[in-house]
């Protein structure tokens, strides 16, 4: 409870985020079961569970999980023994856990009188503030403040605690992506907090900041709407950085086009702010989250990073590892989303179910694959044990197959003209075929999460499995110069840094002078 060790804080962030993912995923599986067959009635409050699924699985999982991963890893990658403000970071952790619990508790009282995924807040039964709405607002305030404090601490840690010789252009790609993400969050999160304050005033004092039309719709879009904030894109940015480090490590060579990848991440963060320039039709946009020409431009820097990954893999000799499977899964899901976006533009899709498929593939599935790639890649360093190839493979097949089938079922239903977010699709011709496909995807995704949980409980809690060496991959960056798992102080001595690959320099001292 009182720890300020960045490794324990990061681990608790990750555990909390993964627990919230399990809750959101289980709710999603229940919703898909309801839709699987005509006449199936689970006696559920479909609207409340749908709101819970969309809000919790996004707000409480990806971004907090990346904060946890960064909290654990960034000090090791920059040769530091701690975070810049460890007690403040601990405070951010407990704010996140408390705020997330309050948000879940709000849905046990009733459906909050708004939905982050809707274009406008939904009026409550008494047009005012009910208990569920008040509790949900306060929970989101705590989560937002937690994000702000953690982002500030991580940014200061990278800027002020780097070891000698580790300049900004020599930062490991994951740490570079975390720095860029945190600086963007420091600009974006206060706007979200301001929107929550406005919503609170509306609900408690009879304001019309959101319910007014069209001004209220604009305010909601630019402050609170789930896909109208930069965070909708920023959850992918740390994953791109992690993928770069993973590919470089397992190909045992520096990235091909590393400078281009660094610049692309900065451009990615800048483009994410174009969400605030969305027009009045954004709530009805089909291709979420890239719903306009400006937001669609985010594909370009992401494609640059993808090309860097592919080029490095082709030029190197990759050693097969489950983390590379997850990176490959990300590239395939992202490609599938891009392909369907092109097809939808050509055939003219009217069914809103298509949007649900695109969100599961592009907005949630692809970034999640990168998070699990990072967890499996750094698992030996985090736990001192190697993960199970069989359970890791099962987790990959479950999560990748689950997201692919979830998206495919909704894509096909959308091409068939099906609407979205209905409790019964009995009037839609293709629903009896495509909804069971999506249900199978949901079940596979849950099974993938179970396989992952079993694997990490086995190595992290039960301490079973093959023991890991300090540097099991012949890594390139500083975290592989520490014991596995690292001691409280992280380093006995920090290796000299003369390039972006200091451990490669130690193994090949003759060549080190030729690398900047």
Description:
This protein is mainly alpha-helical and 516 residues long. The chain has one domain (6-514): Cytochrome c oxidase-like, subunit I domain (Cytochrome C Oxidase, Chain A, Up-down Bundle), CATH 1.20.210. The chain is 65% helix and 0% strand. The chain is built from 17 helices and no strands. It has helices at 6-36, 46-77, 86-109, 131-160, 173-205, 215-223, 231-234, 237-251, 258-272, 293-296, 299-315, 322-347, 353-377, 379-383, 389-415, 431-461, 502-507. Helix 2 packs antiparallel against helix 3 (86-109) and helix 2 runs parallel beside helix 13 (353-377). It is globular, with a radius of gyration of 22 Å. Mean pLDDT is 87; it is low at 511-516.
Lay out the secondary structure.
Elements: H1 6-36, H2 46-77, H3 86-109, H4 131-160, H5 173-205, H6 215-223, H7 231-234, H8 237-251, H9 258-272, H10 293-296, H11 299-315, H12 322-347, H13 353-377, H14 379-383, H15 389-415, H16 431-461, H17 502-507
Helix pairs in contact: 1-2, 1-3, 1-16, 2-3, 2-4, 2-13, 3-4, 4-5, 5-6, 5-8, 5-9, 8-11, 8-13, 9-11, 12-13, 12-15, 13-15, 15-16
